[in-house]
Amino acid sequence: MIPPLRPYVASLKTTLWPKSAFSWLTVIYMSLISWLMSGLSRLLGASPFTVGLMATLAWIFLALGVGWAFEAQKIRPFGLSIAPWVAGGILCLFLFGSWGGAWLQPALITWPLMSFVVVAVPHLLSWELQLKQPPPATRQQLALLLGISLLLSSWFQFYFRIQTWLRDYPSLIADQFDRSAFVYQVPGQAMPLSAGVSHLTQAEFWVKEQIDSKPWSWVERWLLNLQGHQQTLQRQIQVAQPATPESQLWQIRLHTATQGNGYLLRMQAVWLGPSAASDGYYFEKVCEIMPVAQPTAYGTPDATGSGTSWTQVRCQLETPLRHGRP
Predict the structure, then answer these.
(1) What is the pLDDT of residue 144?
(2) DSSP structural state of residue 158
(3) How far apart are CA 173 and CA 196, in angstroms?
(4) Please, which residues have CB within 8 angstroms of residue 149's CB and are 6 or more apart in sequence?
């Protein structure tokens, strides 16, 4: 061997060679050997049971070895032992990562409980796999750790449940959470557009298609049957908008009031689902319906004095959110 390289080789050997057979390095090497045996078994056409058994042993040895290493090297951020959490995370990655698809949710929910199992098993089982009774102080610590693990697991599950609700009912995030004890909105975070706004946009297009540039006398008769048009508009929106679980929780309402020579049409999208406010909330879009003279081809009113009035519909761009009952 080249003399200048001898110190480096000796240092590398000291680092990689375990000082004792009973050490974390030995367990990690057992994991690497199990991975190698699993790969060789797959190449040699061994049964799926043999390949899976070698891979399972590799993951178990890896979790034990890494957790042991963290504890042996005194890696404790802020004085907290994270070895059980690292080992539990590796085991959850092995158990749920092979599922494919949405495996992260069950893995995170199980992670605190798996970490508790890693801590509790050495205190409850002997090397002969016989049950043993830990001392009272240890039992108290295990009970406390079990409670913390259940709490963390419940919070993970609650987070995923909230995300599922927001996915199925995206309008919930448009509500106010100022008095909530567990939901916090990050300042400056862009809020998604509520489905109520898109419903009113669709309603505006439908109303303009029905009465804009139509004879004024016909439009006045059309406004008399506003209740029937409201039901038709509700069905049209449900057909045009994407089908979501919250589609049945929006109700379109139409109200008219006289304004000068014309009418003021208030279109409201009322949220019937759960709300932070006791009286709920709704979005509103206001449209002016006015009679005008028939325009000519040059865009100016007709001055022939025919006496026929036509309808012009102008809607506000704003769709304000209002709390309470419309």
Answers:
(1) 92
(2) H
(3) 12
(4) 112, 113, 115, 116
